[in-house]
Here is the input.
Amino acid sequence: MAAPKKGRSASAQSKPGRSLALILIAIVGLTGGMFASGHTTPRLGIDLAGGTSITLEAKADQGSAINKANMDTAVEIMNRRVNGLGVSEAEVQTQGDRNIIVNIPKGTNSAEARAQVGTTAKLYFRPVYASEPTGSAAATASPSASGSSSASPSSSTSPSASASGSTGEKASSSSSPSASATSQGRAVTDALKADTTPSASASAGASDSASPSASASATTDAATAALQAKYAALDCSDESARAKAGEGVKPSDPTVACGEIDKVWYKYVLGPAAVDGTEVKKAQAVYDTQTAAGWQVTMTFTGSGSKKFAAITAELAKNTQPQNEFGIVLDGEVVSSPFVQNSITGGQAQISGSFTQDEAQNLSNMLSYGALPLSFKEQSVTTVTAALGGDQLHAGLLAGAIGLALVVIYLVAYYRGLAMIALASLLVSAALTYVLMALLGPAIGFALNLPAVCGAIVAIGITADSFIVYFERVRDEIREGRTLRPAVERAWPRARRTILVSDFVSFLAAAVLFIVTVGKVQGFAFTLGLTTVLDVVVVFFFTKPLMSLIARRKFFASGHKWSGLDPKSLGAKPPIRRTRRPSGPAAGPVETKEA
Here is the structure.
């Protein structure tokens, strides 16, 4: 006789205690990480914490038109530039046809972000003809203070692949305040003549007459004299003089400019732009771990940029300082002036020296995101207070509290004892949401704004809906006449499928919204997606195991009228009982036949 089939053993059933212990360990671990990181509250966006709002007005450059395509490109580059500083929840958006609004939240380095966002002109690499301290620094600086020959770090890689230099160091031959004006002027004259001689010769060769050559020479002399006069009169310690230094200069023309090194302002004479910033394919700050040379900035050029950079570095390497330097010019200001030792080919270079991490990161951001299709003028800078956002946050939280109270009242009135499971699950979900928001601030730059708060409030309904689906499945099983323990297990597969489908739709909507939108709406989408994922985690690892545990308690298992699982009030059928087949052939039904 075949042995009767055994039912599912207790060891094969789910162990709810393990799931509850797992989610408890996760909560404790995340909370400990939150306190260990020192970020115990979520970061707030500009509408809640206040910050700085910058309005930029576009100006048409030569060859560039103010149109939607150029404005959108400028917004994208500015956004990447601000995000490169680690500024979270910064908003960069167009306003009208000519303006761009940049909102930088409080709590970040808004002054640094403003400096980089406001530096919106195109980026150029220009050869340096002359440089020296300016203003009061020129009278007090000594040759040793200006720099020394140690500006070329010994840790430089092969000359064919690196450019050595630093924004913080310059050779004494170029920056010494004792350098005579005569030698500086001679250097400028020689460099300008070298730039203009080919064109002059070409003009002379085009005609038998000597007048074109003489005219070109006279023009060059006049331009040189004007540039020398402008350079001599330039005082870079004056902010207004710095702003006007390179104003209206074409990329193909030499110019004067200012640059700050170790809190000392220098003035420069720069040649025509040799490489455009758009030809820098990638720039990043890296730490040299092999030779411990410190922070460096690596650059990768495009195909055309590689050729141009190789040509200009080959020319610069033939000269002595400062004529072997190239100025990296952004918005008319020299942000770095490294010198070149050898021709740099291959499309890759590195700028090394005594950089700090912040200095290297700032320079790499400028190189990566400095080239804009338009130039911009800073129209206004205002400080945004959090008063309005605070009032709106208060109103939003009040609305959320009222909504949560109504949900709780409904759960208690309709589900009674089961409402305690729903409330406990809501508390676990809220704790996980809060801790993750606090941790995601320093981790990925997440900042809580008003739409994100709305997303968290909407999540209350999503989470409560999952509980209701499961509870109703359990009550349906009880109506069919089953007791609580089998009802909990039989209801779970069908409820699980419904919950997963519902949460998948919500998560998909949040993901699409996050991808296709910008600014504050992304905060709403991110929070909605995060809480939807947490809803699945809480239902699977907390609500279901807790239901399995309470099904063993007499209060719920017996169907107490306050448990929410009273078979009588649910209109249950008579209990389903399993009948045994009598053993032995004599116990079976006897079939009789009439004669």
Observations:
- The radius of gyration is 37 Å.
- The chain has three domains: 51-120+372-384, 121-203+213-360, 386-570.
- Residues 47 and 389 are 5 Å apart (CA to CA).
